[in-house]
Write a structure and sequence with these properties.
The structure holds 2 protein chains of 2 kinds.
Chain A lengths: L10 E2 L9 H10 L11 E6 L42 E5 L1 E2 L10 H10 L22 H5 L13 H8 L11 E4 L18 E2 L9 E2 L6 H9 L8 H25 L8 H20 L23 H22 L5 E5 L9 H8 L19 H5 L6 H24 L14 E6 L15 E5 L10 E3 L5 E2 H11 L28
Parallel strand pairs in A: 2-8, 2-9, 3-11, 4-12, 5-8
Antiparallel strand pairs in A: 3-10, 6-7, 9-10
Chain B lengths: L64 E4 L2 H12 L9 E2 L17 H16 L15 H16 L5 H15 L3 H14 L1 H4 E4 L10 E3 L2 H13 L5 H8 L6 H12 L2 H14 L18 H22 L4 H4 L2 E4 L1 H7 L10 E4 L13 H7 L8 H12 L12 H6 L5 H10 L3 H12 L24 E3 L8 E3 L2 H10 L2 H15 L9 H13 L2 H10 L5 E3 L1
Antiparallel strand pairs in B: 1-3, 4-9, 5-6, 7-8
Helix pairs in contact in B: 1-3, 2-5, 3-4, 4-5, 7-8, 9-22, 10-20, 15-18, 17-18, 20-21, 21-22
The chains are: A alpha/beta, B mainly alpha.
């Protein structure tokens, strides 16, 4: 007798994949909710926008279109952060968090920033090649050694993948994690580049570098991947049929368990009773289907195909951004995945705001602080390096545009009930809104413009503006603080060299209460 | 009860009712479990060291219980009964610490797990190999599905299936049939495979609701318990036949079935895995070493694991318990032999080498894989964890709690070689616990962090391998000159064989039989000490009269 068997003894914990039928795709994720104290899944969403934020006003007050004024709780919104005013009590602003990198490191600085914000920094290789990134497979060290080389990768998995691996409450969905972008450039795998990627996996711990998880830019493809075509347009009759089927199953299991109660020793009754309780919880969630919590896939309009005078990427960027946001929101609502990373555009984004705002009919909505339409006709990366005629106002407009779209998503999440205790989709999601640099022109890595949202389950101190002091903390500190708040206490350092003082300056006190 | 008993770190034997080391000399009992108070009076240390209660003459090896099947068992039963090979997790996250988790059998379902079982059933039905009516699920009819269930469920559920059972399941089928035949089959299998009759192993017996005494297992329960213990799956047709006609509870039939099943490759692999957990070999693939100091190690990790398994296979199936400590055999290929200084080995295949000299002549204690694994430090010598491995795994020393909060600060003040540190440590409060296990580490001082033999320490001075064992009973206590001397003590005394018998009883029964404290467990230990045969030990467990009953 030969058998293909694994003999590893496993620790019992959370659920694995979900059902295989169209019906299962819709109903089972909803059944799968209510695993946490709040009766809802916990989630992680990374939202990246490229090229930093506006330099702002006079010398001595850099980034003052970004940073609010005032104290921890009585802060006054800034021109850009005002996009999130309706989310004030769901938002945390952190100032004094760096993403330390040495400007002398080889390779593109935006690319390095993309990696360094969400992944461990590379190991110190010594004085001659200090902190050299691992080279992407198929590329040479010489290509990497180009000062602006882009063919490198993260040394290890990115934080979203690490959390997914280590934090049980993020696991168990049909789609482990999702990576998307609203820029075609960011999804162009024919020109591999660290600039395009937020998330990295690493299945082989002995490998030198991590594997980029290239984002998908096409909303229709993402839609099919996430929801599956058979799930669409399910009517009330079909939903009722599925409910009846699942009720039949759960009634059967309940009956079996009840029948066992008189047969087992009293010492074993708690096992039966807890199993019964589990079945009752499933049933309770089944009843929630059709009572406002049923998830339905978004309706996606066709993206613009005409691109007169502009690239298709410019023409579609705004609508693609909105559609990706809707997919992520619904995917979370359906509990099809609990981890997502989204980037509006890659670190060298060539999206042209004068064109894309025109295509979106938003030229009048997005004006500079003096009330003027965007003047610059350069791409986003170029204006972040002071290209064009009015780069400072242009970069402000770009960052405001992204803040508004993000706020729209987060507001919808805030207004979407989730779980059984009155919470919202946003409450049950930790959202990190970030860029790979603070000031694009100099690739500044201090005072990173990062906002946090939601995460009531972690007791994130919504409404507060934490000003930790210049260079007080790093993103590595932020991730370890977050990991510990999430119960992943083993993560005490998130640099490739454990406890390297360059990255490890201590936890962000008070962030999670 | 959570008892993770495979650890080479701090072994938790909560079931013994013994407290953690408090730092006072004399806290550590000198016996293994309570066996030393056996009627025969032949416990560790000749019985003179006993601190336990007298064993119970009529007690079973385990209590009446129901246990959720493990993921591995789920996969195996589905494979054996339905011909479907599942991959990936069923309800769990992989355990990554290399320890045998006995508490698995005490697991309880929660909503997520219940949901996961439904999803696992869906995977079974979606598999092309699942052919309920000899054809695809879409062609299923009421008649053929009913017959399919009648044929398959008894082995899947490990008990006869009644007309009422079938009627309940077919009612579920009919609800699904409103949608489609495929959905009807899926829903029915979700029910059948999420049923407690499938998910739980029942060892209740004929008197489970009594408040005392023992309950005699039914023939089906005996067959199921035996099969899961030996093959991690449902009974095969022959064993099932002995359950159906009731003969499995007859001593001769039971013995014959135990011997037959134990001879199956799957049973041998399963039992060897349990021994591998007992010796911490399963931690081997998980360890890491400093790549700068030991650049060759990463490439040898898999080889070392296989080397250890080959050694274990020899001892387990063709050797004697004493060989575990006295064998001079190392399995090596050229790459491994080069690193470990084993002469005369060429090629990539592992070959047996019966070594000479001092380096690798003490069985498991000098297996490079084990030396590397128990040395938890990645780059430096690790006397403490090596000592704890022997203390916990081989001597079944009492549980020792976590170090005090200031341990790291105290340790930071201690300097010198590992031996010097140990001596200094023993003079501090640390010594209250460390004196119990550090000696076992000191005798391995001749081996570096990856288990290479050496004759001088980091300062070029000759290595002193001597130590003095204390507080573990007369057959271990006293001075030992080196690892070979310790090996001789472990081989000749009762403590190590009793410890092995307890550990392997625990892993095969998925329950620590010291809880019931049956005198028949002592008989098993006595027989093992006499025979030194691992197969005989397993046979003794499963043919013991105490295996056929469960305590209430």
């Amino acid at each position: 007798m030969t058998k293909d068997r694994t003999t590893r003894i496993r620790r019992r914990s959370f659920l694995a994949g979900l059902g295989t039928t169209a019906a299962a795709n819709l109903v089972r994720p909803i059944i799968a909710q209510a695993q946490s104290k709040t009766g809802a899944p916990q989630r992680l969403l990374l939202i990246h926008r490229p090229c930093g934020t506006a330099i702002g006003g006079p010398a001595g007050s850099p980034m003052d279109k970004w940073w609010p004024s005032g104290g921890t709780t009585n802060w006054v919104s800034s021109p850009i952060i005002s996009s999130f005013d309706q989310l004030r009590n769901d938002m945390v602003i952190v100032k004094g968090v760096d993403c330390p990198r040495i400007q002398g490191w080889l390779g593109d600085k935006h690319g390095a920033g993309m990696i360094a914000m969400t992944s461990p920094s590379p190991k110190d290789k010594g004085s001659s090649d200090r902190h050299v990134w691992p080279v992407l497979p198929g590329y040479t060290v010489a290509q990497q050694n180009d000062t602006n080389g882009k063919f490198f990768t993260a040394p290890d998995m990115s934080i979203d993948q690490l959390f997914l691996k280590k934090i049980a409450s993020l696991q168990g969905t049909r789609i482990p994690s999702l990576q998307t972008t609203a820029s075609m450039e960011s999804a162009d795998v024919t020109a591999p580049s660290c600039l395009r990627v937020v998330s990295y996996s690493k299945s082989d711990p002995m490998a030198v570098g991590a594997t980029p998880l290239w984002p998908e830019s096409r909303p229709d493809v993402v839609f099919k991947n996430v929801f599956g075509s058979a799930m669409m347009n399910m009517g009330a009759d079909q939903l009722a049929k599925i409910q009846a089927q699942n009720k039949s199953l759960l009634d059967y299991l309940t009956g079996d368990l009840q029948a066992l109660r008189p047969q087992v020793p009293l010492s074993q009754l708690p096992k039966i009773d807890q199993h019964l309780s589990a079945i009752r919880d499933l049933e309770k969630n089944l009843r929630m289907v059709g009572t406002g919590r049923a998830c339905a896939p978004p309706t996606l309009a066709a993206l613009p195909t005409m691109a007169s005078g502009m690239s298709l990427n410019d023409a579609q960027h705004y609508q693609a951004s909105l559609q990706h946001m809707q997919i992520i929101k619904t995917m979370f609502q359906c509990d099809l995945s609990r981890v997502a990373s989204f980037t509006f555009g890659y670190g060298n984004s060539n999206l042209n705001f004068s064109r894309l705002l025109k295509a979106a009919g938003l030229l009048d909505k997005y004006k500079d602080t003096q009330g003027n339409q965007i003047q610059d006709t350069e791409g986003h990366h170029a204006i972040s390096h002071q290209g064009g005629t009015d780069p400072q106002d242009a970069i402000y407009i770009a960052d405001k545009f992204y803040a508004d779209i993000t706020a729209q998503l987060l507001l919808e999440m805030k207004n979407t009930p989730d779980g059984t205790t009155g919470g919202s989709l946003l409450d049950n999601t930790l959202v990190i809104y970030w860029s790979e640099v603070s000031v694009g022109n100099v690739h500044d890595t201090s005072d990173m413009p990062v906002l946090l949202f939601g995460a009531k389950f972690l007791n994130l101190q919504g409404g507060k503006y934490f000003q930790f002091g210049d260079h007080a903390h790093t993103m590595a500190d932020f991730w370890t603080t977050t990991a510990q708040a999430w119960g992943y206490g083993a993560l005490t350092s998130y640099s490739a060299v454990a406890n390297d003082p360059m990255w490890n300056k201590g936890t962000l006190t008070g962030l999670y209460g | 009860m959570k008892s993770s008993l495979g650890g080479g770190s701090f072994v938790i034997l909560a079931v013994l009712g013994l407290g953690a080391c408090s730092g006072r000399i004399g806290d550590i009992p000198t016996s293994v479990g309570n066996g030393s108070s056996s009627p025969a009076g032949t416990g560790p240390g000749g019985g003179s060291d006993s601190t336990g209660d007298a064993c119970k003459p009529g007690a079973s090896l385990a209590s009446a219980r129901i246990s959720l099947i493990s993921d591995e068992q789920y996969v195996n039963v589905v494979h054996d009964v339905f011909g479907v090979t599942l991959t990936g997790d069923i309800s769990t996250i992989k355990s990554s610490n290399g320890e045998y988790n006995v508490s698995e059998s005490e697991a309880v379902a929660n909503q997520a797990i219940a949901q996961a079982y439904v999803s696992a059933a869906d995977k079974v039905v979606a598999d092309p190999a699942f052919l309920p009516c000899g054809s695809a699920v879409g062609a299923a009819t009421v008649t053929c599905m009913r017959q399919f269930l009648a044929d398959k469920l008894p082995l899947a559920w490990r008990r006869p299936v009644t007309e009422a059972d079938l009627a309940s399941l077919m009612a579920v089928f009919n609800v699904g049939a409103d949608d489609s035949p495929a959905r009807a089959v899926q829903l029915t299998m979700e029910a059948a495979l999420s049923s407690p009759h499938f998910l739980y192993r029942f060892e209740l017996g004929d008197n489970a609701r009594a408040t005392s005494g023992v309950s005699t297992l039914s023939p089906y329960e005996v067959a199921s318990a035996l099969s899961f213990a030996l093959t991690n799956s449902s009974p095969d047709p022959t064993l099932w036949g002995a359950a159906k006609d009731g003969t499995i509870t007859q001593v001769d039939v039971l013995r014959a079935q135990v011997e037959r099943v134990m001879a199956l490759p799957i049973a041998r692999a399963n039992l060897q895995k349990k021994v591998s957990y007992y010796l911490d070999f399963e931690k081997m693939p998980l360890i890491d070493k400093d790549a700068t100091l030991f650049p060759e190690f990463a490439g040898l990790r898999g080889t070392l694991y296989q080397s250890a398994q080959r050694f274990l296979g020899d001892v387990l199936w063709d050797g004697h318990f004493n060989d575990l400590f006295t064998s001079r055999r190392i399995y090596a290929n050229q790459a491994m032999a080069t690193v470990y200084g084993i002469a005369g080995v060429t090629g990539v295949q592992l070959v047996p080498v019966d070594t000479t000299g001092d380096a690798y002549g003490s069985g498991v204690l000098t297996q490079p894989a084990l030396l590397a694994t128990s040395n938890q430090h990645t780059g430096t010598d690790d006397i403490v964890h090596r000592g704890l491995w022997v203390y916990g795994n081989l001597a079944c020393g009492i549980a020792i709690g976590d170090p005090p909060a200031d341990a790291a600060a105290v340790f930071a003040t201690i300097t010198g070689t590992e031996r010097q540190k140990t001596i200094k440590r023993d003079k501090l409060s640390c010594g209250g616990c460390h004196q119990a296990f550090d000696p076992f580490g000191l005798v391995t001082s001749s081996y570096d962090a990856i288990g290479r033999y050496r004759t001088t320490d980091e300062n070029g001075a000759p290595i002193d391998d001597s130590a003095t064992v204390s507080r573990l009973g007369s057959d271990l206590d006293g001075p030992v000159a080196n690892v070979g001397a310790l090996a001789q003590k472990l081989a000749s005394g009762r403590r190590a064989s009793d410890c092995a018998a307890t550990r392997l009883s625990t892993y095969t029964l998925e329950h620590n039989p010291d809880v019931e404290n049956s005198c028949l467990l002592q008989t098993v230990k006595d027989e093992f000490h006499t025979s030194g045969s691992f197969p005989a030990l397993f046979k003794a467990i499963f043919t013991s009269p105490a295996f056929l009953t469960r305590d209430l």
